[in-house]
Design a protein that fits this description.
34% helix
Length: 204
């Protein structure tokens, strides 16, 4: 709880100079950012010591709340906006969070520079359109890996690319009437388990 309160206060402090989030009141940050992020732990039984890639994390959601709650997780945060990635580096150091990596750039750059194919057990995103993460997701996930997608509405199988399967949906209401949230867990279909990597990529 102390770490979450430090996170909240530093987010508000930085937000006075940098536009990290439009949500600024204490109770709104706690509910709309922290509670919403942590709901993934109820949506799926995230395995111990899992490697999680959070794409378009912004000021660290859902990746940092999940890491605070589950210190065993290995978290990689991808964020292209420099002021937000600077905040991420700062707050990770301040909270002394281990096994958290920040990539300052887009997902496309991350793929080109890190070539992280088959590296992650989970992909998460709250801010990006789901098709952006699912397009390259099959190649990023390990065997049996999943993507955890946050939304305000339910996702149907017909909303997903043909090579992804909807596994479950967790629907809940945010406190204080802040609306419905849905966390959908999806995984690549059996036919797409072979790594989907660009031509010419050397995996050796």
């Amino acid at each position: 709880m102390q770490q979450f309160m430090v996170y909240l206060k530093q987010l508000q402090l930085w937000n006075q100079s940098f536009n990290l989030t439009s949500i600024t009141l204490d109770h709104e940050i706690i509910i709309k950012h922290f509670v919403d992020s942590l709901a993934a732990l109820k949506a799926d039984d995230i395995k111990a010591c899992a490697r999680l890639l959070d794409v378009g994390t912004g000021a660290g959601f859902p990746g940092i709340p999940l890491k605070i709650a589950r210190l065993d997780l290995h978290v990689t945060l991808v964020e292209p906006v420099r002021k937000k990635s600077s905040f991420l580096h700062f707050i990770i150091g301040l909270l002394r969070l281990e096994n958290v990596d920040v990539f300052d750039g887009t997902l496309e750059r991350f793929l080109n520079e890190r070539q992280p194919y088959g590296s992650f057990d989970y992909l998460t995103t709250r801010a990006l359109k789901h098709d952006l993460i699912l397009h390259d997701g099959t190649g990023l996930l390990r065997q049996g890996g999943k993507a955890i997608l946050y939304s305000s509405r339910s996702i149907n199988q017909s909303d997903l690319p043909s090579n992804w399967l909807l596994m479950s949906s967790y629907t809940f209401q945010l406190q204080k009437g802040y609306g419905q949230r849905v966390i959908s867990t999806v995984k690549p279909s059996a036919s797409s388990t072979v790594l989907n990597v660009p031509r010419g990529t050397n995996l050796l």
